[in-house]
Amino acid sequence: MPDLSKAPPGAVPRVDDERCNACRKCLARSVCRTRAILQIDPGELPFIDGNLCYGCLACIPVCPQGAIALNERVQERG
User: Fold this and answer.
1) Do strands 47-48 and 37-38 pair parallel, antiparallel, or not at all (unpaired)?
2) 8 vs 46: CA distance, rounded Å
3) In the chain, what are the domains?
4) 0.90 cut: is pTM over it?
């Protein structure tokens, strides 16, 4: 698991489409205080709205598939 303590403030994670199973009861969505993890239609892959996400990163450790990670562009800057 990546060291989230080194993430820059306001880092917005992303959903890895290859790992995501579009779970019916998405644990990451349930812990998101700002409801930034959106899923338009059931069975469709969710995405994280960067305008709503404030970067608390609570969603990363709760996803059982490990499908949520920091945006690669953010990691490169650090």
Assistant:
1) antiparallel
2) 23
3) 7-77 (3.30.70.20)
4) no
